[in-house]
Amino acid sequence: MQTTIFRHAVVAAVSVAALLCPAPGAAQPNVDWDAVEITVHHVAGGVHYLEGRGGNIGLSIGDDGVVMIDDQFAPLTDRIVMAIRGVSNGNIRFLINTHVHPDHTGGNENLGNMGVVILAHDRVRVRLADRLPEVALPVLTYSDTATIHLNGEQVHVFPVPPAHTDGDSFIHFRGSDVLHLGDVFRTVAFPVIDTNNGGTLEGTIAALGIAVGLAGPHTKIIPGHGEVSSREDVMEFRDMVLAVTDRVKKLVSEGKTYDEVADANPTAEYNDQWGDPTRFLTAVYQQLSDGQ
Ligand SMILES: [Zn+2]
């Protein structure tokens, strides 16, 4: 089932920079929120995902209500809720934050005020508490796994090693065989390792390995940004991270500076697919040269 709500015929041009998940606190550029197109796509079984602006929103939908993964930006909440009502009974019961970034948690205050129970990794609450009011904070936090039993589905939530940030969770909709990987996996850019929020290269590689190990040949994978993917797509992404890491590690061991590493172009054959490598390369270099 696919429901599309057009507020305007013309879809606003979405800047690539905004898609890359700005750092918390980063000012949003002037956005015409009314022009953002909200679209709900069916993924598999009772799972859908909602595209708007910001991170992909995962949805478990059924008679018991809705489990929502991430919530994009506050100015979109009304239209996001309207779109969810279009494919469900509208009873949003739980919201899980995959991580702290504002393009995944911007609707927390609105949804908290609606009485939705917000769950997230312990670290997400700690980091959000710096900038959001109490009602926007997760009321249920975890450092290990949690499972929500709704809609005949086990929605299995679990933290992964510090990857994109230090509060990343994956969500496995076991009955529908769908994984939501938050921003650890994206199909539109190189990995973003937000070291300011505790993200690590080692954890990124480990977390992607966890996803590959958990997924089967038919598992549908919702990335934080981009298109629904397969296990093979995640393997390809992980293999790219491993290859670039090996190359940079070698250059670092030869005493190369960041500029020399960038000049060696260790991402050469991947740039067509994943775009500008600068931010990724900077994080990889920083992580591998620490303490050297
Ligand atoms: Zn993010």
Provide structural commentary:
The chain is of the alpha/beta class. 30% of the residues lie in helices and 21% in strands. The chain has one domain (3-239): Metallo-beta-lactamase, Chain A (4-Layer Sandwich), CATH 3.60.15. It has helices at 16-19, 77-85, 102-105, 108-113, 122-128, 201-214, 231-253, 258-263, 271-274, 278-289, and strands spanning 3-5, 38-44, 47-51, 57-62, 65-69, 92-96, 117-121, 140-142, 146-150, 153-159, 169-173, 178-180, 220-222. A hairpin with a 4-residue loop joins strand 11 and strand 12. The longest helix has 23 residues, at 231-253. The structure holds zinc ion (ZN). Zinc ion is lined by residues 21, 99, 101, 104, 164, 183.
H and E order = EHEEEEHEHHEHEEEEEHEHHHH
Number of helices: 10
CATH architecture descriptor text: 4-Layer Sandwich
What would the average pLDDT be, to the nearest integer?
Answer: 91
- Percent strand equals 15-25%
Question: Got a strand count?
Answer: 13
Q: State the secondary-structure class.
A: alpha/beta
For the biggest sheet, the summary is: 8 strands, mixed
Strand order of the largest sheet: 1-2-3-4-5-6-7-8
- CATH-defined superfamily: Ribonuclease Z/Hydroxyacylglutathione hydrolase-like
CATH topology: Metallo-beta-lactamase, Chain A
Return residue spans where pLDDT drops below 50 for at least 5 consecutive residues.
1-27
Question: Which geometry do the CA atoms define?
Answer: globular
Helix share, percent: 25-40%
